[in-house]
Amino acid sequence: MKLSEVMQFLAEHGDERTKATLLKHGAREPFFGVKVADLKKIVKKIKKDHLLSLELYKTGNSDAMYLAGLIADEKQITVETLEEWVDGAYWYYISEFAVPWVAADTTFGRELAMRWIERPEEGVAAAGWCTYSRLMGVTEDEDLDLDEIRGLLSRVGGTIHDQQNRVRHTMNAFVIAAGSFVAPLLDGARSVAHDIGKVHVDMGGTACKVPLATAYIDKTVDSGRLGRKRRGPRG
Questions:
Q1: DSSP assigned state of 184
Q2: 126, 133 in Cβ contact below 8 A?
Q3: Measured between alpha carbons, how far is 80 from 208 in angstroms, rounded to an integer?
Q4: Are residues 56 and 64 in contact, defined by beta-carbon separation less than 8 angstroms?
Q5: Can you tell me whether residue 34 is helix, strand or coil?
Q6: Rounded to whole angstroms, how far apart are CA atoms 234 and 2?
Q7: Peptide linkage before 30 cis (omega within 30 of 0)
Q8: Is the overall model pTM greater than 0.90, yes or no?
Q9: Mean pLDDT by 10-residue block, N- to C-terminus, for the chain (235 residues)?
Q10: Nearest alpha carbon to residue 124 among 98, 89, 93, 152
């Protein structure tokens, strides 16, 4: 599909209620407020399209940028492009979903995750934690650097409550991911989850809540899903 055709689809599927909700969460004009379910409909038609994903992201339209993350070709996208993407991810739907999805699907996802975690910008650091969380969800335990992850868990335990708003949110999610997807790290993740307790995040006046890591990990274990990997990092 051509960029003009995709943008026309997005315009036609804009939903005012969805748009109003996303504005509360941090989105800004111009965008249409397309529901994720409708975005997935067009993903089925496009599948993966490297050049189109680049064009969509460059529009600055939140719906288009999110869609770019769903159709990007992880085998063609470069480190340089993802660095540009993370710098341009102006709110968390892009920095914590679209960009990490693609980064975690590449062969250099861990490299980017570790680099971004060290960046001072809230959205970039959050993208780093999200990317690593996604990697734990799709990478076999023997291919993960467990000592590195233990170090990151310790970092979360000692610093999370002093971090920027969205970084706190993604650090909490990192603990959940470690305790849910990586069986050898269960005890360590549980210990950190207990230590950090409830994490306070400003959710912009919405009804969204921050999950309690201890409860979430326990639920994963009780349901028999401990260590069960995802089929892919996107969506």
A1: G
A2: no
A3: 33
A4: yes
A5: strand
A6: 23
A7: yes
A8: yes
A9: 98 96 93 96 96 98 98 98 98 98 98 98 98 98 98 98 98 98 98 98 86 97 98 92
A10: 89
